[in-house]
Amino acid sequence: MSLYNVIIRPFVKKMDRERASRIALRYFGAIGRIPMGRIVNRWIHGNKPKGLQKEVFGLNFYNPIGLGAGLDIHGELYNDLNNLGFSFVEIGPMDASGIGKAISHIQKDPQDDILAVCIHNDYFNAFTLGYDFFDFFVLDIQDIQSCTDILDSVLDSRIAEQVYKPIILKVPDTTTNSELEELTEYCLMNNVDGMELRRLGQVKAVSKHSMGKLPIIANCHIDTPEEAYDALQAGASLVEIRTGLLREGPGIVKQTLDYLLKESKQNDKTNGSTI
Prior knowledge:
The protein has one domain: Aldolase class I (TIM Barrel). By secondary structure, it is α/β, with parallel strands linked by helices.
């Protein structure tokens, strides 16, 4: 049993999500500051099981499980969190001002693995400012009416860059089916690299409408290995865990990957399919 489960978990399970996130972040940061703490964490939790590697929007992920935005809001502890076994960490959400502060952290402590940033305001300035420092960008656009205009400006700015960086659209969970279909078509026709979706029904709808051509990150309040598996089966390419980490501790990543491996092997035996 980890120290998190003994010391932190009993308290965070009784707290609201925001306060639980702050407490958990302090714990993970404290562990990372202990001499050899990062190395020990990576040794214990660094999950790179064979059979779960994926290439999604041109990036190589050593497993399909990432940490969603909302925990490391300011981009201070991405390496400590990545050492828990996630194949990528999404920091934020933030605007251009937040990007500037995150860059100062990255310059002092370069990321060990894939690092994404969620942008929720001042999209163009935040995107161009952070372009050289992140592996992919998630645009959390709440106003559906202005969504394509925002994407157009960001996509146009990417054309001038020498290195291609994926752009992912994150849509509200209140998006209607017709709006979701229109946005899916836009993404397919305009080189948007994927969508991040908050509901399992959205994952199924976009996967079906795009015929599996548009990569999907499922950010569906996933708490258990079974829920992660269901999201992948519904059409997600990657799955983000955040509330599950807070409630269950770092062991949730290994538990999830072990479950996915077991199901993958079972699928291989029955019908030759993989996760």
